Amino acid sequence: MNVLYFLRQCERNRNNEIPDAESPLGQWPHSLSSMLACLSCSLGLFNICRFGILSIHFGANFIFQFFFLSLFVGLPLFTLQLCLGQQLGAGVVDMWRISPLFQGVGVSLLVSQALIGLYSITGVSWMFVYFRDSFITKMDKYRWAEAFHPYRKVPDQFVNISHKLSDTLPDYLSGVVYQRTNLVYGNVYGTIKFQPAFNLAVVWMIVFVSLSKGLRSYGKVIYVFILLPVFGTFILCAKLLGMMPPEYVNVIFPETSWSEFFTNPKSWIAACQEVFLTWGVLSAAVMQIASHNKNKHLLQRDSSLIAVITFAVLILVAFLANTCVQILHSHGYTYRPNSFEKLSTYTFMRSIKDPLPPNLATTPVRYMVHNSYILGEKVVRPGMDHTSESGYQVLRLATELVPATFALLGSERISPFWAVLFYFILILFGIAQQLAIWHCVITGIMAIKAKVLKSWETTITFFSCACGFILGLPMTTELGIYVVYFLDVTVGGLWWLILVILLQIVAVFMVRGRPYSGDTVVTAMFKATTQSCLLNWAPALLSFTWNVVLPVVLMVFCVTFFKNGNFRELFIWHHAPSLDYWPLWARQIGSMIQLLPVLCIPLVAVIQSYRYLNNGPSDILERIQLLYRPPLGEHMDDLGVQEAATTTTTNNTSPTATNIPPEDPPPKYTPPPSYTTATGARIAKLLRQSIRRSVRRIANALGESSSSRQRANAQQNSEVLPPPPPPDYNAVLVEMNQSTTSSQNASDSVDHVVISVTNSSNAANNQGGGGDTTYSGGFTAAHVANILRNSFRSTARAANTLRRSINDNHGSLSAENLVESAAPIGETSLVLEHLSNSDDLNENKPANTEFLSVI
């Protein structure tokens, strides 16, 4: 391992810093590509239409409530995903190397993105119909302003009846866009219609071409799909705001009631739903986009631009929607919520002269129950028949309000170019959001085995788009709007997705913890070059919001959305199907769609627990730690390597292989010791090795070599011998290796002085020769003290030699030199090998008292 890299990792671990990580799936080709891709997650076709309609229903109260909640909940949730993606260099699937136990959270988030993209892309295909019919001349009328009877089969007695604009707009949406040609007869069929299927295929082809080359193509086309609609929105709003009647300029938001700012819970719930739909519903896509950033990317700049542009566009859309309402009012119409099921419930424009039903006249729209979903919103009107009406409609701004405004103004007062521009902007916003969603899905699939699947990126993209198109064909039938509504209620119900994101926050900050704590993750947002006044309070406030405020608020959101959406009905299966809007089988499927992503988390946790507890280190506590809180540098792939090694060792049955002990695993990373600890460890190691050499020489002197021990073991196997008597302490042979170098001529010869003390029951032998002298006789306490004194002196000389050699080579005994000279247990240290050559030269030198004082 590179020493500098090792020391850098040591310093990061000591400071609780997250190590730098880069995504194996590549990086963005341009610096602004990441910001624009994240902007497409917070600003799309669907939240633009929802925000405009909700500002009509609740007035300016909703706008201020949305901004307030966005600052304290929405933006912290959005920036959390940004920081996690960049710090970990991974998306929702491969980020769980930090805690493999919660791998199911990533799988659940990936499934949620796939489900959202699967049915929401149908709404983008519907915009192509309006875009096509916007190309007219100044002498023509918009197709949605013409009588609809030529486009559906009706009895002859209805042909000559004149149609109002309040009738032609719903008929156009139902007959031309949805292709519900049999709606007038009350029948619907599941036949695939060519026009919706063709438009859907066009959208999928655009998605495939844009993502076929990965970040190389996505990073370039995102400039077109975001910058053009943003600039186009500013131009379009400036034009339509100038068309507002002068008498209504002072009353831009007619439903505003400041006295009800805190007392109307309906507006607060709608604001909470819109905040999560804007900043949190595509959190997995945001994290995947941020994972491709380079290290030290300017997240503070990106998040600031995203927030400013999102707020600016949404405010302009709110003014645009209320301007359209005022234009309708000046022409004698009022705008009311409707339901898509029947022609009688489909009318959203009413004449001011026509009296309202009693239930609608006494209850303003801002007091009705609202439920916001991904594609559309649902308004529960008083007295509504809940068995046949839902109050749901998709993209009301684009399918109802703006077409009615252009039809009333006519091509003479406003050029059709502005209608073309409006739908072109919505199409670009919708495609940009689909690119973000399916980029997350495709890269999440490749992240399972990034090194293997990276080369198959184009193939995976093609099959993903093909499967998405095939699964989306049921939404191109006459039943398509029912399928969209069903999926929007179940998938876009939000409560289960909020629960999954809450588990993600708990797993990262509370279970995993350091170094992936809020104080460390927030460093990706604020750099050292940031203004000091901002660094004093912003990181601490954001970290506190992530750890405390955000989990509590998300739990409140989960409970509130579940109760407000009345999702309890999906889990009640004992009611008769005729008494509810959905039949029994539909409620069962809907409840499973919401529960399966949540149940995926404990299921994957059980699988991961089985994998990690059955493989790995011998210590069960260490396996548990690798499961939920592995040390830095651990990855799930390491477990696969261990499993393969275990399988190979088990299958190898040769006798030679079984006798070879397995190699020790490489030492795991531990923080570097302090100077005092490292010095004490080296001295202890010197003493331990000196004692080992002494014991080994004693064994050799007694004749107990390795070969003799093996022969003794073989004899014990053949016959049973009586155990030898316990040795007497006087029957110890002590050999001290005192190397002396008197001159250069005797450098290759070593004199050994062997003191032999035998047991009194044995005969004494004196052997000499070759410069070796053997003494035998009684062994007193003075002899033992003399031997031990010489042993400690030789140890002190070895330590003195160590200090001298380090000072000569490096100038100081630093922690870096200790790490370089360290060796695993059981192997010879590099320093001791050097000492074995230099010990003879320092025998007669006195021990360094200064170094012994450290001991």
TrEMBL record:
Top-level lineage group: Eukaryota
User: Residue ranges under compositional bias (Pro residues)?
Assistant: 662-672
Transmembrane regions = 36-56, 62-84, 105-131, 188-209, 221-241, 303-328, 417-448, 460-487, 493-513, 534-562, 582-607
Annotated compartments: Membrane
Bias category Low complexity: which stretches? 647-661, 705-718
Keyword terms, alphabetized: Membrane, Metal-binding, Sodium, Symport, Transmembrane, Transmembrane helix, Transport
Per the record, which residues fall in region Disordered?
647-672, 701-731
GO biological process annotation, one example: amino acid import across plasma membrane
Q: Which Pfam families match?
A: SNF
Record's signal peptide: none
The record gives the membrane topology as: Multi-pass membrane protein
Q: Where does Na(+) bind?
A: N47
**GO MF annotations, alphabetized:** amino acid:sodium symporter activity; L-amino acid transmembrane transporter activity; metal ion binding
> Which Gene Ontology cellular-component terms appear in the entry?
plasma membrane
What family is reported?
Belongs to the sodium:neurotransmitter symporter (SNF) (TC 2.A.22) family.
- PANTHER family for the chain: SODIUM-DEPENDENT TRANSPORTER BEDRAGGLED (PTHR11616:SF323), SODIUM/CHLORIDE DEPENDENT TRANSPORTER (PTHR11616)
Q: What is this protein called?
A: Sodium:neurotransmitter symporter family
Organism, as annotated: Popillia japonica
Question: Which lineage?
Answer: Eukaryota, Metazoa, Ecdysozoa, Arthropoda, Hexapoda
